[in-house]
């Protein structure tokens, strides 16, 4: 394998508290102290670029097995690479669901053959993600899952969730939870408030999320098992996490770009590309989410990349599926909103939220540029201005509300194990 020298970039490695201008050497797919004398190497000029650990997205839906018209592991991996991500974590709500070791093995083997990045998979908490009976957690752990979740659904039985947490602790697996109380949410399709009333759409109260966040805080404390609350959308969810974390409860949360880029007011045109789960909230919630990111309550950023076929979204708002694609716009949105516009955090903290923080939660050997670490690297131009064009997406689906948006900041090269995977060789 050839060697690579990244010259004079701003090296930001939050895992090692490193932020300096310099060279980064890659030898045989790993970060090296230097290129050995006499060994040929490729040199990349990184002046004006940030050299960061490969970005990690711990919340994506690649739809295989069973829904390859929406996305495949190969196309999803290309979308991730185009967005600057070297590692992703797939959710288990496929068809069949990832609720047994054979499906885990199938995904791992297919990813090794077809994915240009690192693809990790979660296992379902319950069989068929039905919330009724625990899946075989031990055998899935041995097969290689990195976490448990019923994402897309939420376990409503609190006693069953407790037992899942006790098993998860045995196998040192974090539990990721889609926080949704079905009784409160009912048939809601958008945030319950002024705009749901005006538009005549069934409302989805934020309490439907907060109720499960509180449940998770209580169970995480009881079972001493880490719970990660997925795609937070409510300002009061952030308040609950702030209080619990201050008391030492092993609870964390993530925020997705659409929940800080948009509000429920965006649904005025009944465009189903703005329909997502949990729904877009009010401005006060957006402000609270950004504050939660700024003060460290929110520890991870993710996309909840959820591809759907165009015809599925071309129906009445009530009937359309929830979800949007996000991998190719995620970094640009976070840079634009959190760094350039709101100045909520600095660049090293943003990179930490997308690298070492998810790596620590999931116990992955990624998210660092330490000597000897796997050479997964993302080169970022934080000032690059560009326009989102859904037609150019690498994903098989284009269900995005951000087409035509002008953003500032983007990944310009993605390197996995020392090999450039984006842009493709022909485009380099």
Protein topology:
Layout: E1 3-13, E2 18-27, E3 30-32, E4 41-45, E5 50-53, E6 55-60, H1 73-82, E7 85-90, H2 101-114, E8 118-121, H3 137-143, E9 148-149, H4 158-170, E10 175-177, H5 182-185, E11 190-191, H6 194-199, E12 203-204, H7 207-223, E13 227-229, H8 235-246, E14 251-255, H9 258-261, H10 283-294, E15 300-301, H11 310-313, H12 330-341, H13 347-353, H14 356-362, E16 377-387, E17 406-416, E18 419-422
Which features does this protein show?
18 strands, alpha/beta, 8-stranded mixed beta sheet, 428 residues, 30% helix
Strand content: 15-25%
Helices, by number, come to 14
Number of strands: 18
| Helix share bin | 25-40%
Give me the Rg, rounded: 21 Å
Which class do the helix and strand fractions yield? Answer: alpha/beta
Anisotropy-based shape: globular
Taking the sheet with the most strands, its summary is: 8 strands, mixed
Instruction: Give the overall pLDDT as a whole number.
Output: 97
The parts where pLDDT drops under 50 for at least 5 residues are none
C-alpha termini separation = 19 Å
Brief overview:
By secondary structure, the chain is α/β, with parallel strands linked by helices. It contains 14 helices and 18 strands. 30% of the residues lie in helices and 22% in strands.
